[in-house]
Amino acid sequence: MSKPRVFSGVQPTGNLHLGNYLGAIRNWVKLQHDHECIYCVVDLHAITVWQDPADLTRAIREVAASLIAAGIDPTTSILFNQSKVSAHAETAWIFNCVARMGWLNRMTQFKEKAGKDRENASVGLFAYPNLMAADILAYKATHVPVGEDQKQHLELARDIAQKFNHDFGVEHFPAPDPLILGEATRVMSLRDGTKKMSKSDPSDQSRINLTDSPDDIEQKIRRAKTDPLPLPETVEEVAARPEAANLMTIYAALADESLADVVAAFAGKQFSDFKRALTERAVSVLSPITGEMRRLVADPGYVDGVLRQGGERAAAIAAPILAETKRIVGFL
After folding, report:
1. Strands, DSSP E only, in the chain?
2. 127: part of which helix (H) or strand (E)?
């Protein structure tokens, strides 16, 4: 490989939002310049919880359109939906037989998603970290852009790679390294600065969706939770004020500035003034993406073609790796 190989994926479950864009997609776009990038709409992961089939089809296209609109170049990067490449599922089954139950029992996200009714959760929801490892290792990806909440899953992928290599006495799978990039790696809810911005939050006011109009964005930022004090005057003060920290970090990421620069520009000002500036910045960055996304969603034939061609390119990389994996395991 002439460039480091990056793999990352996003679930087709509901609207992508500002947290997805600032925490992941914007960085994916930047990585295209000096990495070999494989980006995946992870529809196999999506069905670990029930999905209406028609809604899932629509969501796969919508998320793919969002990625293209945000700057993922499908001629430079590989963009596809996961179910098009069988190596993901085949490698995941092998990893089901490599990973240990104790490893999966320690995964905090399963506990959060399954809640109190763990006995009623699907086997797929429990084992999906093994599929996530397969997503990465099926391409021998060397780097994975992750948020703080995904670092545990990447560690599992590294453990699986190490155990597979040890068990079979080979150096087949590399241990992928994390890439944590940008000012806003963890964007919080507009309603609660201590909780992550999420598609699953019942309040649409908690997030800015990539489908939101300028009026929607203005309204949500104006209503965003703040504290009664003027804006912080030092970076240290920001850390103790979660709502201020969230809004100022979002501004810094949208403006490609450091948090220290934002603090210096707005120190001691009222939130009303800052929110107007944040609205202008958010609208200027997000509106072109929203417009292009709507154009692409209206052309499903183009989006389907991108995913089909991306799947073919991805399969061409994964096929010889899977064949060697099977040979190592002993499959005839």
Report:
1. 5-10, 36-41, 78-81, 143-145, 177-179
2. helix 123-137
Rounded CA-CA distance 36/220 in Å is: 37
- Could you list the mean pLDDT of each consecutive 10-residue stretch along the chain, which spans 332 residues? 88 86 90 95 94 96 96 97 98 97 86 74 91 97 82 91 98 92 75 90 93 96 95 94 95 92 96 97 96 95 98 98 98 96
User: What structural domains and CATH numbers belong to the chain?
Assistant: 5-185+299-329 (3.40.50.620), 204-294 (1.10.240.10)
Is 217 exposed, middle or buried, given 0-12, 13-18 or 19+ CB atoms closer than 10 A? buried
pTM: 0.90
- Which of 84, 163, 196, 225 is catalytic? The answer is 196
CB atoms within 10 A of CB 301: 7
Catalytic residue among 84, 199, 225, 326: 199
In 18-157 the beta strands, taken as DSSP E runs, fall at: 36-41, 78-81, 143-145
The answer to whether 198 is annotated as binding is yes
Q: Is 220 a catalytic residue?
A: no
